[in-house]
Specification:
Chain lengths: 446, 418
Amino acid sequence: MSDDHEPEGNPPGPEGDDADERGRTAGDVLLDDEELARAEIEAAAERAADAKSIGLEASFGERFIAAITGTGVIVTLLAFVSALVIGAFIIAFSEDSVREALGYLFAQPGDAFRAAWDAVSSAYLALLQGSVGGATQLSETFVTATPLILTGLAVAVPLRAGLFNIGAEGQFVAGGMLAGLIGFSLTGLPMAVHLPLALVAGLLAGGLYGWIPGILKARTGAHEVISTIMLNNIALLVSGYLISTTLFRRPDRTDPISKSVEASARFPRLIPWEPGLRVNTSLLVAIVLAIVIFWLVERSTRGFELNAVGLNASAATAAGMNPGRTIVLAMTVGGAMAGAGGAAVILGLQHRLTIGFSAGIGFSGITVALLGRGRIGGTVAAGVLIGALQVGGRNMQAQTGTSLELALVIQALIIVFIAAPGLVRAIFRIKADDLATGQVAKGWGA
Amino acid sequence: MSQAMTTPATQRRRERRFGMFSLLVLAVMLGVFASSTRGERATFILNDARGQLFELPDLVLPVVPTVILLSAVVAGIAARQFTRGFGSRAVVIVGVVALLFVIAFLTWAAAGGQLSVVGLLRGSLARATPIAFGAMAGVLCERAGVINIAIEGQFLAGAFTAAVVSSIAGDPWVGLIGGISAGVLVAFMLAGLSIRFQADQIVVGVVLIVFATGVTSFLNTQVLSGNPQLNSPTRFPAISVPVLSEIPLIGPVLFRQSLLVFGMIAAVIVLQYGLFQTRWGLRLRSVGEHPLAADTVGIHVLATRYKAVLLGGVFAGIGGSWWTLDAVGQFSREMTGGRGFIALAAMLVGRYSPVGAFGAALIFGFSDQLATSLQLLRVPVPSDLLLTAPYLVTIVVVAGLIGRLRVPAADGKPYVKQ
């Protein structure tokens, strides 16, 4: 018990005393143990100091600075660096010229390194330019980030309740389908009615599709990871079927593509006088929803219950909370966010439904939420970051021929490093003891 | 264990729930299948075109009378479920109801056409193979206390590497070794991150899937599409066991299969024996149930977990190789199509035992194959909707009929030596 190094487990005070006591009694027996105990006391003192500086009494400014300079941000940055370095190796080894140069590596080693450097630097330069290199690129970054923020929230909210929502993809599809249906089947409505109606339809459809795994989990204990994966597949297949029916399909086309959303249900562009900038008002919707979710999760009573259930379901039950209701709420709210993401893409960007319109945006939401460490603000920031990475990845593919999937690899690597802070610590030899652990979701039994 | 704990009241409630299920099945059978006008007779072909000892006559069933007869049996079962109940056989009876439903469905689907029973069953067993291999990887990991969601990633890595290695070497055995190494490599990442660095195991699993998907898709477009000679693997030939494969119906289904299918059946038997009858299995399970106790009696918890996860990687790698070395013979992007998740479901449905997981894999393989077979019969159900069947079955099974799982007690919990 006194050996418990878990940083988030025990409050710093008592553990410090514990370690102190241990140091005195065990010190007589073994020198190593004494050493250990001293280190533990020092670590506890450091933790206590940290806790004070970011405690509740600290002002917003102090907390902001602590968040920026805190080890959590350092881990995130190092995770990025490590992922980009590994990505560089993958680029280098998949490039034909590099592999050719490797063939005569020992004759002319400079060639291989030069070819690798050329391949990697041009790919990453294209990545950077494609995401933030100009007004159009920035606009594209935010266009891509909008649904990512929403699907990120769809994963983040259940995550706070200890649930792992892999179903954002299916919920996204459900939301997009119903929003699209409302968008093209109702005509003659003013925009002030039609657009909100279609958006709410998307929220409802996504919420309902998230409610299903929630209620299954609460009532029968069916694990949400399995049921959401199955619901994803079902949503993709059923949407593919529906788009090819006469209800959705464009009458003049035989291939599965839906009717176009009415102009009155489209999100207007933010900068309509610049034709190249596709950034639209759905971004504002995403920000407003993020603020609402922030209030719900961080400030409201329901949010308190949500966090309590996520931290310790049995303690929450003992305190008179209802974990079942919280689970259903978390999954439904999460699903609604993903549904809003689907509506944002269909009403704001694509204006019609095609097979596979979700294009993995729901799955990227997992990356976004984990990158944001399940916090609401962090998720929004992570959404913009991943959006930039994806837009940049497209530019990279167009300019240097490095395939788009590399962005996926880099995303995965980033989460690996974030989920396993111990790995980052081991690579960079950071001695900080209070790196947050990666334990965010719960096992099967929870 | 559930029998001992359930009170008569909950038992009766459960029976009544099963009864509702039977009534639902009955309604579909009478409402849809019996009132069908698709054709009067359904023909089931029992022979294999590749020859056998003697020919069986085709089974020709009149559609409506057959469905009504089956419905009557289901009605009888439902009546008893609502009154006396079946006691300890309640779950088995649900399986019987499901089986009767499937027969009625097949009769309806084959009405006015022909359905090859051999093809259906043979395909089911073949499609169950990767699912069973994946499920065994899951069983090994989770019995030792490590959650393995990454089976899908192991499949993809195995399929990709097996394709490339087999293409270069021109030998499926070498390709299989390549596939196994890739599965073990992903398993090693899973083990390292979850055992050594104590990362969240579900997150690591999902991330490894994204990682494997990304790397294989990236290398596929970047390298394989420009070098087709790297993506033309030599496949395992189908093997006919002499004499046994000549038995009508059973022979072609069980003994005229590819090597991986036989390997899967052998692996299921060996693993079932190993896990539950040997010292190795007891030790493996003990670190998944109570690692502290296992540690106290001198079992190396972390080493045992590492070995279990890596051995799981071997099985998952073989499962992945099935696509490129057996079924398809070419790697394509995301070709495993979520079967890794189905394997996960099979493991849960099979309650963490190799034989149970194999049984569940057969059900999934069957519904997989059925969707394909039915497209040939021009059943008036769109193929997209038919393909949802395995997923719906999974949800129903996981949510309803089997109740709560008894998960290995330390599953997903990193062990820190005290």
